[in-house]
Amino acid sequence: MATAAFTAVNRGVGLMLAATALLAGADATETPGHPRTDGAGIEQVWVPAGSFLMGTADAAALEPPAWARRELASEQPAREVTISSGFWIDRYEVTNAAYQAFVDDGGYDDRSNWSSQGWHWLVAARAAGIRLPDECVEPIADQPRACVTWHEAAAYARWRGGRLPTEAEWEYAARGPSSLSYPWGNEFDPARANVIDSTGATTVGSFPTGASWVGALDMAGNVMEWVLDWLDPGYYASGDHRDPTGPATGQIKVEKGGWWGAHPYVARSAYRHFEDPPEYSDHHIGFRVVTPAGAPPARSEP
Ligand SMILES: [Ca+2]
């Protein structure tokens, strides 16, 4: 009896400890910016569920450069958007070293990492004599991977066990619940981002004072970033307010955050750059990955 009672008490304590550990883990994970390293060795930060004002409310106060003016209407109307589940986002843009690990692991040539449309693009491009993966600039290890199409970015994200962020997830990770204009505040500051007076990308994380509320870096500038969504310039007037994923189909993919050598206007987190189809790549467009909480999608999912 004594032994059984002891065992029962012990089990009870053990369950309590387990429950406490679970709670402590949950608490830590719910903290904005709580870090982890994923299975590929990439640092990510936690973005808790929440709401923010997506888009631009006071467009009249902005002074877009002529070449970006046509895109402003697509940021309107500003609307309250809810992200109903927390998620992990890469602290940094995907680097050349990280991308090379994907290639070296065979992930690039593994059909299961690609969408049907992406694999079709890859096969056709190689048949046309295009050498892929391409390196249109010197691939310095700790600089962001550029020269990457949306299809390639999506395949890399699948290999990582994640996906590209939706535009809403990306913008929320950059602006936070207070919907800042820039990751660090509402005024542009050239010391916090690689945006102006620049001739190229820098080592990721070179502007620590430009961190967003969750500690994500270079969300303004350095390379611009592919997001999951197709473009519909009128989407904000009609799209979902809860976990929006963009229109179901399209021709152009949205890019966020501006780039080195650009303009403070395009480094605003609400800015939507759109002109490029998913087969396009150049030297100032890169990406980062999100991993939903819970079970990540298996690499074999369609
Ligand atoms: Ca960036």
Could you give a quick summary of the protein structure above?
The strands form three sheets. Strands 1-2-5-9 form a four-stranded antiparallel β-sheet. A three-stranded mixed β-sheet has the order 7-6-8. A two-stranded antiparallel ribbon has the order 3-4. Residues 1-26 and 297-302 have low confidence and may be disordered.
Task: Describe the protein.
With 302 residues, this protein is α+β, with helices and mostly antiparallel strands. It has a single domain (4-300), classed as paralog of FGE (formylglycine-generating enzyme) (Alpha-Beta Complex). It has helices at 2-30, 96-104, 116-127, 150-159, 167-175, 235-238; strands spanning 35-37, 43-47, 50-54, 79-83, 87-90, 224-230, 253-256, 285-286, 290-292. The strands form three sheets. It has a four-stranded antiparallel beta sheet. Strands 7-6-8 form a three-stranded mixed beta sheet. Strands 3-4 form a two-stranded antiparallel ribbon. The longest helix has 29 residues, at 2-30. The radius of gyration is 21 Å and the shape is globular. The protein starts with a helix and ends in a 10-residue tail after the last strand.
